[in-house]
Design goal:
By secondary structure, the protein is of the alpha+beta class. The chain has 2 helices and 10 strands; from the N terminus they run αβαβββββββββ. The chain has a domain at 45-147: Rieske [2Fe-2S] iron-sulphur domain (Rieske Iron-sulfur Protein), CATH 2.102.10.10. It has helices spanning 3-26, 51-57; strands spanning 45-50, 59-62, 70-74, 82-85, 97-99, 104-106, 113-114, 120-122, 131-137, 140-147. The strands form 2 sheets. A 6-stranded antiparallel β-sheet has the order 1-10-9-4-3-2. Strands 5-6-7-8 form a 4-stranded antiparallel β-sheet, with no helix packed on it. It is elongated.
């Protein structure tokens, strides 16, 4: 074995022994202060926000919901009724916003409008917004993971 081959093997060995250390150093760390994943109840509902936040802001947008983003608003037809939709516009993928004065979801990109139950009122969107089953559970708002 000549000097060049010896140094090549030493370099390969050094890299191989350093690889596990590099992988551990680059892996995401978890801490006890991180919040746990919201628990899913036996009936498939999981929390997406607090009633107080809904009352304060008029809507709750949860982009981390497993079934896709969810936008929760109070249904103007009932005091404690709430509605939940996937806020992704079916036309161009922009997030719709709830306009309480119009009682509609409105897309800021091309002005598509949707009813509280996701149906298209005004295009260019052709498909309705997917809806979720939602309810109040104490001081929390819970939504069922599958779209209706």
């Amino acid at each position: 074995m000549d000097r060049r081959e010896f140094l090549t093997w030493m370099g390969v060995g050094g890299m191989a022994s350093y690889l596990p250390v590099a992988l551990i150093a680059c892996s995401p760390k978890t801490t006890k202060s991180e919040s746990p994943t919201p628990s899913v109840s036996a009936d498939g509902f999981q929390p997406v926000g607090k009633v107080a936040d809904l009352d304060k802001n008029g809507q709750i947008l949860n982009k981390e919901f497993p079934g896709g983003a969810v936008l929760v608003v109070r249904n103007p037809d009932g005091n404690n009724a709430i509605a939940a939709v996937n806020p992704t516009c079916s036309h161009a993928g922009c997030f719709v916003a709830w306009k309480a004065d119009q009682k509609q979801f409105v897309c800021p990109c091309h002005d598509s409008k949707f009813t509280i139950d996701g149906k298209v009122v005004q295009g260019p969107a052709k498909k309705p917004l997917p809806t979720y089953e939602a309810k109040l559970a104490g001081d929390s708002i819970v939504v069922k993971g599958s779209k209706i």
